[in-house]
UniProtKB/TrEMBL annotation:
Transmembrane portions of the chain: 12-34, 317-338
All residue ranges annotated as the HAMP domain in the record: 339-391
EC number(s) from the headed UniProt entry: 2.7.13.3
Domain Histidine kinase: 406-620
Keyword Coiled coil: yes
Name the UniProt record assigns to this protein: histidine kinase
Sorted UniProt keywords: Coiled coil, Kinase, Membrane, Phosphoprotein, Transferase, Transmembrane, Transmembrane helix
Catalytic reactions on record: ATP + protein L-histidine = ADP + protein N-phospho-L-histidine
Native organism: Vreelandella rituensis
PANTHER family the record matches: OSMOLARITY TWO-COMPONENT SYSTEM PROTEIN SSK1 (PTHR42878:SF14), TWO-COMPONENT HISTIDINE KINASE (PTHR42878)
Length: 635
C-alpha cells in the first residue's frame, strides 16, 4: 500500500473535518429547526386555544343577551300568558292561538336573524313547544305547534308544504329536546351538546324566572360547524373536536398514534396541555368547555410538512455548501498546505540533507511567524552552531598542524643552543676560563627559561582544546584591576585609564584573567621607547554583546597583518625586550575567547598603536557579576 504523504494526510484531515463540521452543522440546524417549529407550534396552538375559549365565552354571553331581550318583550310575554291560561288542547281555538304562535315565531325569527343564534325554541309551562325559528333548516324558517282533536300537529310557515318525512325528522328532534328538558329540568346546564350528530351550543332561559313557576322556557341554539372554527383557527393549523369518544368535526388526516394518545388520556381521566409530535406533525389537546354535560376535547395540529420543508431546504443548502467546499475550499486548502506547510517542510528536509553533506551555509526562510517559522529559526541556529563548531574544529586542526610543524623548529632551536653552550661550558672547564664559563652558563639559563615559557604557552594552548570554560557573570572593572596587578604594567609607570562602571560579561574568570594579562603584557612588550606608554580601556554594550577594547599607543600593526598576529609563533616586529615573547600570546587570547563563545580582533589604537577588541556575551545579573569579580584573580 503506497504511503500517504503529509500533504495528502493533512488534506484528508481537512476534508474529514470539513465534512464533519458540515454534518454537525446539519444535525444542529435540524435540531434547531425542530425546536423552532416545536416552539412555533406551541405558540400557535396555545394562542388558538385561547381564541376559541374566548369566543366560546363571548358566544354564550351573546346568546344570553338575545334570550333576555326576548324575555323583556311585552308582546311575547302577553302571548305566552294567553297560551298558558286559555289554551285547551281538546278544545283548541286555532283561529286565536295559531295567530299568536305565528307572531311569536316571527319574533323568534327576528332574534335569530339579528343575533348569533341560529335556532330558537319556545316552550310553555308544560314544556310543550309553542313556536320555533331556525336558520339551519333549509325547508323551513318558522314553525309552531297546533292541535287537532287533542293531538299535536307541527305547522310550518314555509312556502312549500312541510313534507311528512321532514315533519317526522323534526318531530323526533323535538321529542329529544323535550325528553332532555323533562329529565334534566333541575340539573340542565348551559353548554355544548351533541344534538342530531351536530355539536351545538345550548342556552336555556326561563321566562319570568322571578316567579315560582316560570311562564315557559326559551332555548337558543348555535351550531358549531367547520365554518365557525375555521374563522377562529388560522392556517396552517388543523383541528379536530371530539366528544363521547367520537370525532365531531375534523380537518385532519387520521393519525393512529394520536388516537392512542387521546384514548390513554381519556382512560386516565386527565387532560393535557403538552405538545406531542408524531410523523404527521405537532399536536396539542385541551378540554376547553368544562361546564358541559359531555366533555369536548379540541385537538390542534401543526403540520409536519412545514418542518420537513424547512429541513429539506437546509439539507439542500448543506449539500451546496459541501459542493462549494469540494470545488473551492479544498483547492484553497491544498494551495495553503503546499505554500504554508509542505514547501517549508520540504525546505527543511533539503536543508537537513545539505547539512548532512557538509554544506553548513544553508539557511531557511524565517519569515513565517507560526510553528514552522520557529522551527526554521531553530534550524538556522543549529546550522550556525554546527558551522561555528566546524570552523573551530578546522581552526583547531589547523593550529595543531601548525603547532606540530612549528614545534620541531621552536623546540629544536633552544635545544640545539643548550647542547652547543653545554659543550662550550665543558671546554671552558678544561681551559679554566672563568669568563667563558660565565657566558656559557648565562646563555644556558636564558635558553632554558625561554624553553620553559614556550612549554607553558603550548600547554596553555592545548588546555583550551581539552577543557570547557565555566562561564559565569564577571565584573570587568574588578577583573581588569586584578589583571593589571599581575601584568608587566604593574612594575612600571604607565598611563593606564580604565573607564568606570563597565558592564558585566559571561566568562570564565581564569580564562579572562589570562587573556587580559597577555594583552597588557603584549602592549608593554611592543611599546615605543621614545614616548610614554598610554593605555585606555573601555567597554560598550550592544544588544546582548559587550565589546571590551584595550587600546595603546605602541608600535601598531598594519591592516594586512591584523589577522596574522593571532597565528601560532607569529612575531611581526621585534620586541623591546629581546627575551620577551614566544609568538603564542595573542593566539592563546583568541583561543580562550573562542572557548568562551566570544571574538577577538585588532583595531586601530592611539596614535597608530594597537587596539585589541574582545567581545563576550553580556551578563544578565549584575549583582552576581560584582560578587564574582574578585574570582578573576589567579590563585
Amino acid at each position: 500500500m503506497p504511503m500517504l504523504t503529509l500533504k495528502h494526510r493533512l488534506l484528508l484531515l481537512i476534508f474529514s473535518v470539513t465534512l464533519g463540521v458540515l454534518l454537525l452543522a446539519g444535525f444542529m440546524s435540524n435540531l434547531s429547526l425542530l425546536n423552532y417549529h416545536r416552539y412555533k407550534a406551541q405558540q400557535m396552538i396555545e394562542n388558538s386555544f385561547e381564541i376559541v375559549a374566548l369566543d366560546y365565552i363571548r358566544l354564550r354571553e351573546e346568546l344570553q343577551h338575545e334570550a333576555r331581550l326576548l324575555d323583556d318583550d311585552i308582546n311575547l310575554e302577553a302571548s305566552l300568558n294567553l297560551i298558558n291560561i286559555y289554551e285547551d288542547r281538546n278544545n283548541y281555538k286555532s283561529i286565536l292561538f295559531d295567530e299568536e304562535k305565528l307572531s311569536i315565531g316571527a319574533r323568534l325569527l327576528t332574534a335569530v336573524q339579528t343575533g348569533r343564534s341560529d335556532q330558537a325554541y319556545l316552550f310553555d309551562q308544560g314544556s310543550r313547544l309553542v313556536a320555533a325559528a331556525s336558520l339551519w333548516e333549509k325547508s323551513w324558517d318558522r314553525l309552531y305547534q297546533s292541535y287537532q282533536q287533542g293531538q299535536a300537529e307541527i305547522k310550518s310557515t314555509a312556502t312549500q308544504p312541510f313534507s311528512q318525512e321532514k315533519s317526522q325528522e323534526f318531530q323526533a328532534s323535538l321529542y329529544l329536546l323535550e325528553e332532555r328538558l323533562e329529565v334534566l329540568r333541575s340539573s340542565l346546564s348551559n353548554g355544548l351538546y351533541l344534538i342530531d350528530e351536530s355539536l351545538q351550543l345550548l342556552y336555556r332561559h326561563s321566562l319570568n324566572f322571578e316567579k315560582e313557576t316560570p311562564d315557559g322556557h326559551l332555548i337558543m341554539l348555535r351550531h358549531l360547524d367547520e365554518t365557525v372554527f375555521s374563522n377562529l383557527i388560522t392556517a396552517p393549523l388543523k383541528y379536530q373536536l371530539r366528544t363521547e369518544g367520537q370525532t365531531v368535526i375534523s380537518t385532519m388526516n387520521r393519525d393512529l398514534e394520536l388516537e392512542r394518545q387521546l384514548s390513554l388520556l381519556q382512560k386516565e381521566g386527565q387532560g393535557s396541555t403538552a405538545i406531542y409530535r408524531t410523523e404527521q406533525g405537532f399536536y396539542g389537546m385541551r378540554e376547553l368547555f368544562n361546564d358541559t354535560l359531555e366533555p369536548v376535547t379540541l385537538v390542534l395540529k401543526y403540520p409536519n410538512d412545514l418542518y420537513l420543508e424547512s429541513r429539506n431546504k437546509t439539507l439542500k443548502a448543506l449539500m451546496l455548501a459541501m459542493l462549494a467546499s469540494a470545488i473551492l475550499a479544498l483547492p484553497l486548502a491544498l494551495w495553503f498546505l503546499v505554500r504554508q506547510v509542505t514547501q517549508p517542510i520540504q525546505g527543511l528536509v533539503q536543508g537537513v540533507k545539505e547539512l548532512r553533506e557538509g554544506k553548513y551555509q544553508v539557511a531557511m526562510n524565517e519569515s513565517s511567524r507560526d510553528e514552522l517559522g520557529v522551527l526554521a529559526q531553530e534550524f538556522n541556529s543549529m546550522a550556525a552552531e554546527i558551522r561555528n563548531r566546524e570552523q573551530r574544529l578546522e581552526r583547531a586542526n589547523r593550529d595543531l598542524a601548525r603547532l606540530s610543524e612549528a614545534m620541531a623548529h621552536h623546540f629544536q632551536e633552544p635545544s640545539r643552543r643548550l647542547v652547543a653552550y653545554a659543550s662550550y661550558l665543558e671546554n671552558a672547564f678544561e681551559t679554566g676560563s672563568q669568563s667563558d664559563m660565565s657566558t656559557a652558563v648565562g646563555f644556558i639559563g636564558q635558553q632554558a627559561r625561554h624553553l620553559h615559557l614556550l612549554v607553558n604557552k603550548v600547554q596553555q594552548y592545548l588546555a583550551f582544546q581539552r577543557e570547557s570554560p565555566a562561564l559565569q557573570p564577571v565584573a570587568l572593572n574588578m577583573a581588569l584591576e586584578t589583571a593589571l596587578q599581575h601584568s608587566l604594567l604593574n612594575a612600571t609607570e604607565v598611563d593606564v585609564e580604565i573607564a568606570p562602571a563597565l558592564p558585566a560579561v559571561e566568562a570564565d574568570p581564569e580564562y579572562l584573567h589570562e587573556a587580559l594579562v597577555a594583552v597588557m603584557n603584549n602592549a608593554y612588550t611592543y611599546r615605543v621607547e621614545q614616548r610614554p606608554l598610554m593605555i585606555r580601556i573601555t567597554a560598550l554594550r550592544h544588544a546582548d554583546k559587550v565589546t571590551l577594547r584595550v587600546c595603546d599607543n605602541g608600535m601598531g600593526i598594519s591592516l594586512a597583518d591584523r589577522e596574522a598576529v593571532f597565528e601560532l609563533f607569529t612575531r611581526l616586529t621585534p620586541a623591546v625586550n629581546a627575551e620577551a615573547g614566544t609568538g603564542m600570546g595573542l593566539a592563546n587570547v583568541r583561543q580562550s575567547f573562542y572557548q568562551m563563545q566570544g571574538e577577538v580582533h585588532v583595531e586601530e589604537g592611539i596614535e597608530g598603536g594597537v587596539c585589541i577588541a574582545m567581545s563576550l556575551k553580556a551578563a544578565s545579573d549584575f549583582q552576581d557579576a560584582n560578587a564574582q569579580g574578585a574570582n578573576a584573580a589567579v590563585q
